[in-house]
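Hi support team,

I've been running sequence recovery on a batch of backbones for a student project. Most finish fine, but this one hangs at about 90% for roughly twenty minutes before it completes. I'm not sure whether the input is malformed or the queue is just slow. I've pasted the structure tokens below so you can try to reproduce it. Let me know if you need the job ID as well.

Thanks,
M.K.
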């Protein structure tokens, strides 16, 4: 549906809502016309592609880098007006944001879903409104693939498999593994957990001695590590499902004179800048990349759709891993996050 058709639809909805809204609209027009601030010429505003982006939150270095990438991609200079919503890690806030985007008749909805379940109802509303939905980063679980146009993100099960293969090749068993998980029910947590649990099944001298959700948050990672130390659980490997939880683990270990990366091996995910510095310093033994720079990727998908093309339904990002053998300061400074 074109933007002017949407405008008519929105106007109809507006007019149907009675005289109150009409007088409110007249008040708003008066208010805007009396503002002295220079307004962009209507022709420019009208030609911008309006994108409503529902972001998970700001829980990690990864998430913040993802937000910056999206904001930079959907700039006015690039021909977009971005309506950004930070859901503060609450699915209900994401659902509300999507409904607001529908009411504003945006041209595209981009959703970074905090969890896999619970999207069918609101995405059905978006479909009924004729607004294409692009899913970015994590996956959703739905029986109706027509509820979203396309998806771009990481294969987190593959990330877990990369970590397990590295552990098999570089760590000598028996391994007593502490497992700190991300948001339970997110595809990022599910994939990395599945990878580790398959590794434990395949290696008889590996044992999961502790498993708990740290929600991808540094403070929770530190809290869980303190709990493990207080319980005097015997461990020699920590598998943290993101860098921020690994930062918290390292703080707790060092507060107890335990040398991270040596007294206990640390496996992490994301490969954020600060974490790669910790790989260089030997405090993190392996960091599996999960690339957050999705802004240009999502913009490319939208531009295909604007040209009337049909993008791939699923686009996976190529990712690598970093350890002491393949990481340099130059690589760290050359990376975008
Ligand atoms: C991964 C992404 C995860 C990161 C965390 O695709 O969803 O969420 O690994 C982030 O750092 O919080």
């Amino acid at each position: 549906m074109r933007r002017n058709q949407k405008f008519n639809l929105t106007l109809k909805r507006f007019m149907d809502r009675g005289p109150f809204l009409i007088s409110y609209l007249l008040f708003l027009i008066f208010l805007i016309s009396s503002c002295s601030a220079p307004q962009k010429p209507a022709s420019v505003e009208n030609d911008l592609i309006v994108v409503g982006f529902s972001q998970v939150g700001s829980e990690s270095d990864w998430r913040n880098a993802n937000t910056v990438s999206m904001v930079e991609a959907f700039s006015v200079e690039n021909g977009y007006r971005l309506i950004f919503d930070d859901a503060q890690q609450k699915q209900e806030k994401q659902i509300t944001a999507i409904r607001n985007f529908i009411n504003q008749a945006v041209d595209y909805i981009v959703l970074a879903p905090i969890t896999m379940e619970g999207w069918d109802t609101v995405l059905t509303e978006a479909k009924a409104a004729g607004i294409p939905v692009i899913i970015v980063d994590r996956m959703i679980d739905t029986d109706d693939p027509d509820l979203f146009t396309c998806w771009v993100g990481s294969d987190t099960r593959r990330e877990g498999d990369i970590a397990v293969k590295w552990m098999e090749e570089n760590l000598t068993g028996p391994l007593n593994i502490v497992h700190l998980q991300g948001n339970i029910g997110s595809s990022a947590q599910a994939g990395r957990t599945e990878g580790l649990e398959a590794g434990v099944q395949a290696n008889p001298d590996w044992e999961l001695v502790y498993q708990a959700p740290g929600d991808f948050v540094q403070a929770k990672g530190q809290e869980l590590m303190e709990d493990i130390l207080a319980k005097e659980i015997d461990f020699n490997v920590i598998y943290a499902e993101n860098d921020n939880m690994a930062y918290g683990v390292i703080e707790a270990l060092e507060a107890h004179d335990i040398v991270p990366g040596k007294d206990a091996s640390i496996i992490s995910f994301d490969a954020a800048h600060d974490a790669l510095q910790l790989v260089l310093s030997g405090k993190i033994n392996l960091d599996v990349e999960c690339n957050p720079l999705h802004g240009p990727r999502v913009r490319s998908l939208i531009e295909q759709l604007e040209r009337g093309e049909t993008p791939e339904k699923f686009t996976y990002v190529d990712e690598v891993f970093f350890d002491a053998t393949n990481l340099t300061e130059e690589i760290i400074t050359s990376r975008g996050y």
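--
Follow-up from support: It reproduced on our side and the slowdown came from queue contention, not your input. The longest helix spans residues 19-34. No action needed from you.
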